[in-house]
Amino acid sequence: MLDLIIRGANLPDGRQGIDIGIQGSRIAAVEPALEASAAQEIDAKSRLVSPPFVDAHFHMDATLSLGLPRLNQSGTLLEGIALWGELKPLLTQEAIAERALAYCDWAIAKGLLAVRSHVDVCDPRLLAVDALLEVKKKVKPYLDLQIVAFPQDGVFRSPGAMELLKTALDRGVDVVGGIPHFERTMADGAAAVRALCELAAERGLLVDMHCDETDDPMSRHVETLACETQRLGLQGRVTGSHLTSMHSMDNCYVSKLIPLMAEARLNAIANPLINITIQGRHDTYPKRRGMTRVPELMAAGITVAFGHDCVMDPWYGMGSGDMLEVAHMGLHVAQMTGQDAMRACFAAVTENPARILGLEGYGIAPGKNADMVILQAADPVEAIRVRATRLAVLRRGKVVAETPAQTARLNLPGRPETVDFLRKRS
Ligand code: FE2
User: Fold this and answer.
1) What is the pLDDT of residue 48?
2) 118 C-alpha to ligand 1 centroid (Å)
3) Contact at 8 Å (CB) between 228 and 194?
4) Catalytic: 213?
5) Strand, helix or coil at 73?
6) What is the pTM of this model?
7) Which distant-in-sequence residues (6+ apart) come within 8 Å of 324 by Cβ?
8) 5 CA to centre of ligand 1 in angstroms
9) More exposed terminus of the chain, fewer Cβ within 10 Å: N or C?
């Protein structure tokens, strides 16, 4: 006797008519026509049942602060950074925690059950660090929050930042961050990459750096990141976030760089919503898209994820914690409209970021955590197309969020009464 069976699920890998048996907090069986009974059954009605969405790149300490203390008038990255500097002295731990918790509610409702968030450590009070550590503990039953110590103003450029970053790690922050392109010189940037990778190696931690978030094709810190990863034996444990300079680099140089990144088993995170709005701002026309070379990185065997990066903060006024919106934008910006490519965009907001975060027990398979999302769509491509409603979100075998199916009512003579935007099924 199982606790719950979800019948008639379509899985992201293409299997159809699958039953998922759940016992306690774990998946007990994944097979067609499961011969078992359960206290509760849910009919998935040939809908997609996916493992939860994962956001590999976010800033939870800034989220939902839009308009504080004023709006970003130009919409640029630099005004965003300046605005964040104005807001920092006004922040309180309680207000940061409250906004982060409100965002986690949105995330859970959208089936987003794991987030890697950067936290700015360039504030001697480390308010945001303490706030997010508190939030991490509070949301643990529902959402895995992994925190990156992020020296927003540069680990060398900002006085005392290295010590603050180390203190943040001592307090329980999980991952070493960085921003080499924001240091004063290329040499300082390279030195920052080296020092931060050494720190991660000493402490046995993962690395995730904002790396080369610029349109300058000569910003090549990713090369140093790959090199240091190899030198320190950190293969598979290091991630380059943004990597937008790769968009503008010379193709000949990239033909050397991508194999170097693959050799170091570097992970890559693109942030399509932010890259398409922030990059190319110095261009007239043609205007560059700015997003890193996602299909090429994937073709080289590099694990690539799409992150949300920002939701309603000094840098970006849009967003609602919907990783299908992120995948939708990523698909368009990268021109990933081939059949396999569209499915790869779905993987970029589910299994790929799960691998980058090192999540244990992730996936729809016996023995894994009973965490999943029932979507109002038949398959991953349809889910991205309609940014499918999350009919039910399960965490450790319990339904933690539900949203009614989305249908529109038509008042047209001779036409059906309702329309749901899904592909017609016979
Ligand atoms: Fe970021």
Assistant:
1) 98
2) 7
3) yes
4) yes
5) coil
6) 0.97
7) 53, 349, 383, 384, 387, 388
8) 39
9) C
State the distance from the centre of ligand 1 to the C-alpha of 114, rounded, in angstroms: 16
Q: Are strands 398-402 and 408-409 parallel, antiparallel or unpaired?
A: unpaired
DSSP 81-114: HHHHHHHGGG--HHHHHHHHHHHHHHHHHTTEEE
Q: What is d(CA 377, CA 59) in angstroms, rounded to the nearest whole number?
A: 29
CA of 165 to the centre of ligand 1 (A): 17
Domains of the chain and any CATH numbers: 2-51+363-410 (2.30.40.10), 53-357 (3.20.20.140)
Active-site residue (options: 213, 223, 325, 351): 213
d(CA 255, CA 251): 6
Q: What is the secondary structure of 196-213 as a DSSP string?
A: HHHHHHHHT-EEEEEE--
Closest CA to 194 of 168, 162, 224, 214: 224
pLDDT confidence of residue 354: 98
Contact (CB, 8 A) for 165 and 124 = no
pLDDT digit string, tens, across residues 119-140: 999 999 999 999 999 999 999 9
Q: Mean of the pLDDT values across residues 190-199? A: 98
Q: Do residues 207 and 175 touch, judged by C-beta distance below 8 A? A: yes
Instruction: Using DSSP bridges, classify how beta strands 144-150 and 112-120 pair: parallel, antiparallel or unpaired.
Output: parallel
In terms of Cα–Cα distance, which of 148, 235, 239, 160 is closest to 193? Answer: 239
The predicted structure's pLDDT at residue 426: 39
* DSSP code per residue over 318-375: ---S-HHHHHHHHHHHTT--SHHHHHHHHHTTTHHHHHHHT-TT-SSSTTSB--EEEE
**CA terminus-to-terminus distance, the chain:** 34
Give the Cα-Cα-Cα angle 175, 123, 322 (nearest 5 degrees).
55
What span, in angstroms and rounded, lies between the C-alpha atoms of 202 and 357? 19
